[in-house]
Amino acid sequence: MQRQSMVSPVWRRPSSSIVCRFFDGDVDLVVIGAGYQGLSTALHAARAGLSVQVIEAGEIGAGASGLNGGQVIPGLKQDPETLLAVFGADLGERLTKFSAETADAVFNLIASEGLDVEHARTGWVQAAHTETAMEAAVRRNRQWRAQGADVALLNQAEVGLLTGADGYRGGFLDRRAGVVNPLALVHELARIATEAGAGLVLKDGVASLRKVGAGWEVTTASGRSIRARKVLVATNAYSGALVPKLAESLVWLHSFQIATEPLPAGLDFILPGGQAVSDSRRIVVYYRRSPDGRLVLGGRGPMREPRSVEDWAHLERALQRLFPMLASLRIDHRWFGRVAMTPDHLPHLHEPEPGLVMVAGCQGRGIGLMTALGAPLARYLADGDPDVLPLPITPLRRIPLHRFRRLGVAGHIAWYRLLDGLER
């Protein structure tokens, strides 16, 4: 079976080295998890003068930060009018402004730091496969244009020219978006965070987290121990029992991906402008070209871990539906990772005890969202002012009947896949 369990075989690691170290004595901040959120926060906190220790259970990029499709999409699942209705004028406007600038945070960081990360700010297409989806694209376009965003509505001919795919009615183009090598980005974040003074330990997960006086004692699986004034738990879809209720507040799903062999000559009409694409189906399919010219396509997979190449067959069928001319092309790579969703499709910020902070739930916007959250999270962890946060601090709440979530989600996926098939 062609599968890479730790990192995608498509994305290149930068050649620069990352120096790991574990601090002796107390620190200002322990960050648990070395993904985009954890490393971006560690970077900004270290540059603000805090002593920071990052602790990661695996390797850099072993989680969603190294396994995603590399799409950098600004905004959230909900559009500005919904955010204003849910959060009110002040916080709704703050969250809208923040979410509008998440792609800026990524591409500006790459440029200002000279990061060794393949990237292209060529835009993102949300392709509509039904008239109902096209109506949603019209609403999204109207709301973001009212915010001054560089977006556009696409008709059927225009979406066909941008994607090269069959079957779309039109779509929404967000020119603020783009693509990156996600594995290179998380490696480069680790490099500049450690160069800024943050400590980093890999392959030694946190075994216990205990309140001690006004701070926290963090102990790793190998027996290392460190005390910190504050702790950021940046584990998202890989959250376990370390923080009560955290894992039970999330629904995690498997995101499966395939990569073709490099596209042969004569197929440059497929994604000619280099945009990333997500479609409007209930079970979303997303795709882009990789830096070495492959078509990389992803979507939801089984709730269990894959057993054979047949577990990626639904993606091969989607590839052939969209691009019939690629039916004979070899699939060179197959891989999967875990992502976390929240019931309301919004990122959630929690502080169940003073000094214990966490954000979870990306909903397909993780690269921009979690990278951009690093700066306000670092400021909040430094001075405790909630007004610097773009999200409200909310209580941790278990999802009812959470232990049955796999059956429920698997049933929903099967049902939605059937409905999507009927809407060809």
From TrEMBL:
Keywords attached to this entry: Oxidoreductase
Residue ranges of domain FAD dependent oxidoreductase in the record: 28-378
Short name of one Pfam family: DAO
Molecular-function GO term, any one: oxidoreductase activity
GO annotation, cellular component aspect: cytoplasm
Name assigned to this protein: Glycine/D-amino acid oxidase-like deaminating enzyme
